Amino acid sequence: MITVMKFGGTSVGSPEALQRVVKIILNEEGKKIVVVSAMSGITNFLVKGAESLPDGKTDLVKKFEQMHIDAAGQLLGAEQMGKFRKDFDIRMEKFREILEDRAASEGPYYIDNISSQGERFSSLILCHALREAGARSVALTSEDCGIYAEGRPLSGSADLKKTESMMTIKVKPYVDDGVIPVITGFYGVKSDGLPLTFGRGGSDYSAAVVANAMNADLLEIWTDVDGFMSADPRIIPDAVKIDEMNFSEAAELAYFGAKVLHPRTIEPVRIKHIPLKVRNSFKPEEPGTIIHHLRKPRDDMLRSVALKTDLSIIAINSAEIAFYPDMVARIIEKIAENEVVIYSISTSLSTVAFLVHSNDVKSILSRLNTLGPEDIDRIEVKNDVALVCAVGDNLLSKCGVSAEIFTAVKEARANVEMISEGASDVSLNFVVPMARVTDVVKILHSKYVRGG
Ligand code: ADP
Ligand code: ASP
Ligand code: MG
Predict the structure, then answer these.
(1) In CATH, what number does 2-292 get?
(2) Is 4 in the pocket of ligand 2 (CB under 6 A)?
(3) 218 to each of 272, 274, 292, 404, how far by Cα in Å?
(4) 303-343 pLDDT per residue, tens
(5) Does the C-beta of 37 come closer than 6 Å to ligand 2?
(6) pLDDT of residue 54
(7) Of 11, 98, 249, 299, which sits 20 to 30 A from 243 (CA to CA)?
(8) Beta-carbon neighbours within 5 Å of ion ligand 3
């Protein structure tokens, strides 16, 4: 039995939290592989610090170094601390070199390099804390493991095949030998050997990639809530924990805003039928949520509701566009350049509307402007909208469900700007003004979620 255990930022955010994590790892049966995020706040600190370069370099290094040494100092005895300092100084030296490298700072992947530093140090601390507790452990970076990535800056995807063959050579021998590898989450390496991050929150995805590569039997995502909940507990305080979900439900919710899992976490484990558990590192006695292929159907209407804010609708008007699929294809090609994510598409006779992130609108409009007036009559942009993703068992098969949901939306005095139903067999997605989205989710949750 091989279990990949991923610990998020808050789970490794303090010496006390790390101590709890050491216990959780040691209590786990069978062979284990650990993937960690940076200590909480560190990635934000690095991203902000990168903006202050080169002037802010000394300050950045000093604070970064201090935060990690302080945490390690509270966890490790003198002998282990001495060993830790040796490894720490080597990694710190590399970090300083990156900060000094003026030529690299001009490159498109420089922020990937800086922001991936936190994981290199949290993994080192945890590895030494495990050794302090008597376990055999090795701290491995994504470079050491051969976790390969490709794609644009700050939004890499793993090369699953290459990663599997590299990790089989570089990591499996440790696991077979009973050593616990502690691996950096959040980033992989490009073919030129430089880091590429998987997007914020990417350590969940890293862990799923590691589980896939090592053909693990189980992936555990240890975080700061009891499991996958019926809504974000920060918005809905009485959100309830879901005991069991299937891969599609979790994938839709994560993609459309449930921050508990990085949007791309599910696919690497789904394709290898590896079950995933979401568990609370602050309450290890709680069983958490299990996500797998099948689960028993239930009769409650909604299981969970997620929301994604800061979106915009770009509506493109062109006479009888529905009869010119080649024109629609040209428009989509322009929008999708630079790997822009399109969250929803809706068409009518003369309009095609796209739901995209607001940050992408400017670049999309400039690309659309390169199309001629024969393609496009008018473009309208509606900003400040949010998408609601409602997941449930009987959404598409039960008569009147949509009517009930939209009646609830009306109660929240929200106008529905766009709808996507039928694209997935588990979810109903719709767009409302951002100012009303919290009320919509609150009303839907209170009326239709039973939980458990
Ligand atoms: P970690 O640092 O462990 O990766 P994150 O902060 O990335 O943790 O994710 C956990 C947070 O996700 C929770 O604290 C919670 O506020 C938020 N969240 C959003 N939607 C959900 C949901 N449906 N279920 C559980 N947590 C959710
Ligand atoms: N440390 C990274 C972040 O803050 C990755 C992660 O936490 O999953 O985004
Ligand atoms: Mg996270």
Answers:
(1) 3.40.1160.10
(2) no
(3) 11, 6, 10, 38
(4) 899 999 999 999 999 989 889 888 899 899 999 887 889 99
(5) yes
(6) 81
(7) 11
(8) 8, 201
pLDDT confidence of residue 106:
85
CA distance 417 to 51: 37
Separation of alpha carbons 83 and 352, rounded Å = 61
- Residue 452 has what pLDDT? 59
| Number of helices (H), then strands (E), in the chain | 17, 18
Q: Distance from the CA of 268 to the center of ligand 3, in angstroms?
A: 17
Task: Identify the bridge partners of residue 279 per DSSP, sorted by sequence position.
Answer: 222
Tell me the pLDDT tens digit for each residue of 15-69: 999 999 999 999 999 999 999 999 999 999 999 998 887 888 888 999 999 999 9
Residue nearest to atom 2 of ligand 2 (CA): 201
Copy the structure tokens of residue 421: 């139903």
Ligand 1 centre and the CA of 230: distance in Å? 12
Written in H, E and C, the secondary structure of 290-335 is EEECCCCCCCCCECEEEEEEEEEEEEEECCCHHHCHHHHHHHHHHH
At 361-380, the pLDDT tens digits run: 999 999 998 887 777 889 99
Class of domain 304-448: alpha beta
